[in-house]
Amino acid sequence: MSRQQQQRVLSEKEKMLSGMGYIATGPELVGERAAAKELTFEFNQTRPSELDKRKEILKKLLGSTQENFYIEPPFQCDYGYNIEVGDCFYANHNLIILDCAKVTIGKRCYVGPNVSIYTAGHPIHYELRNKDVEYAQSITIGDNVWLGGSCVINPGVKIGDNVVVGSGSVVTKDVPPNSVVAGNPAKVIKQITDEDKQYYYRNRIYEVDVLKKQE
Length: 215
Hints:
Blueprint: H1 3-6, H2 12-17, E1 22-23, H3 27-44, H4 51-61, E2 69-71, E3 75-77, E4 83-85, E5 89-91, E6 95-98, E7 103-105, E8 110-111, E9 116-118, E10 120-121, H5 126-129, E11 133-136, E12 139-141, E13 146-147, E14 152-153, E15 158-159, E16 164-165, E17 170-171, E18 179-182, E19 187-191, E20 199-201, E21 204-205, H6 208-214
Parallel strand pairs: 2-5, 3-6, 4-7, 5-8, 6-9, 7-12, 8-13, 9-14, 12-15, 13-16, 14-17, 16-18
Antiparallel strand pairs: 1-11, 10-11, 18-19, 20-21
Helix pairs in contact: 3-4
């Protein structure tokens, strides 16, 4: 028996988590996705007043959370345990995270409605797809990031700190810190500077001094 044959054969889950091609239809992964669906179903059926119950369910579902986080239902994910969210995280309705690989989200991040975060992908050639081969690449989102409504984050993307992703954008490449990206595929359209502090929307000034006088 060769040295290669003597090595332990990786499970499909281990292949998935290591970024290799894998088959997602085995009993281990099917069972874990089913368990996640039970928890997301329970979460999505909660009443608006059941805030503590929602947080309790999400703490069971997600891999890591801080004390201050909030996700509006409905919410969907594949496994849950691959998702880590930082402090003061907020996600609006219809967030979808296909977390076949790690999804790490920093602190003070805002996620608009109908946002999709995909670590999962399929081969381009149909013959591999027809054999149920999939792959997963981790996604990292930095601190102070705002993902605009209906944007899509594709496998393997790293988004730097203080980034704004415009509504409807499709992010296929890494995004540098302190930038605004938009479009399909998303491109950098602006660098964020200290001058932007005074504007709450386009050229409309947020008059902090006036508000202080009113207090």
